Amino acid sequence: MSHPFLDLAPLSAARFASIEDRVAKLLDTRQDVVIMQGEALLPLEGAIRGTAGPGTTALNVITGPYGQTFGDWLRDCGATVIDLAVPFHAAVTAEQIRDAFAEHPEIDFVSLVHAEAATGNTNPVGEIGEVVRAHGALFYLDAVAAVGAEPVLPDAWGVDLCVIGAQKAMGGPAGVSAVSVSERAWERMRANPRAPRRSYLSLLDWKERWIDGGRRALLHAPAQLEMLALEACLERIETEGLEAVMARHRACAGAARAGAAAAGLEPYVYEERDAAPVATTLRVPEGVVASEVVARALKVDPSVPIAAGGGALAKEMIRVNHYGADASLDVVRASLAALAAVL
């Protein structure tokens, strides 16, 4: 029996390339864009392993759990890692980056997360990019949660490796991701004897066998369903307009903070300018356990996209997600109503 999800014609190289071009347009970049056949951890790890090694001195900015992961990967590659840890209720500043360069002029690699959905903060990448560019370090950015919710501009900001995923603000599939790569980053990979080759983690394989070959022959059979879903996701953003999509996320973030304040809940991220438009994090009152509040609120309304913080944050943080299909004022109202019913 025929099935629309199973009986699919092979995805052509030309169509694959056209989807990459649409991702490049979304990022307003002229850099090479590679779509990778896996969740965003694939290019996030591949980009670090391709460009970092024993001669690398990396400034690893930690404003949430992913920054900690990047530091682990960098150390595993043999890099010297200088961690710049910032409280999860705030954002890193360009001045802190500048101070780190002054103290450690040997830094030649900077890793940063743009928006942290897990902690609800976002970092001023444009300002930071100016400082990184002036210093001459390679700039690696995790923009998985940010893309679609706020501007992501690798060319304008001097980002050498910009990784995105479609599963959050873009409202698309989780099983496919992309990375824009500058010529400086390609040069770093070519010069790195430890850069993965003939490997699923290898960006150089895509460069040498796909991009340099004119994008005529794919490395392997693409994940058709995910690629078609990504294409549909990009088409939906193009139809609504990227500015409108971002405005919808900003409106939800503002409404969530205002509604939480009216209900007597304290924002986890202190300053509104540091708050990510993809998720609003809240601090529960003293003596209240966040995970218990969330469990009870989900019994009131199982449909709302709320969660407790991860790990130790499960005691004190509630996260109201408002990204992708949930970037709706109705969803925000329903989430706050469920929490208010419990608290």
CATH superfamily of the largest domain: Type I PLP-dependent aspartate aminotransferase-like (Major domain)
* Helicity, as a percent range: 40-55%
**Name of the top-level CATH class of the largest domain:** Alpha Beta
Total domain modules: 2
What's the β-strand tally? 13
CATH topology of the largest domain: Aspartate Aminotransferase, domain 2
| Total DSSP helices | 12
| Cα radius of gyration in angstroms | 20 Å
In the CATH classification, which architecture of the largest domain applies? 3-Layer(aba) Sandwich
Overall pLDDT, averaged? 96
Shape, principal axes of CA atoms: globular
State the order of secondary-structure elements, H for helix, E for strand.
HEHEHEHEEEHEHEEHHHHEEHEEH
Termini separation (Å)?
Answer: 52 Å
Unreliable stretches covering 5 or more consecutive residues? none
The biggest sheet, with number of strands, parallel, antiparallel or mixed sense and barrel status, is: 7 strands, mixed
Order of strands across the biggest sheet? 1-9-8-7-4-2-3
**What structural category arises from helix and sheet content?**
alpha/beta
In terms of DSSP E residues, the strand content is 15-25%
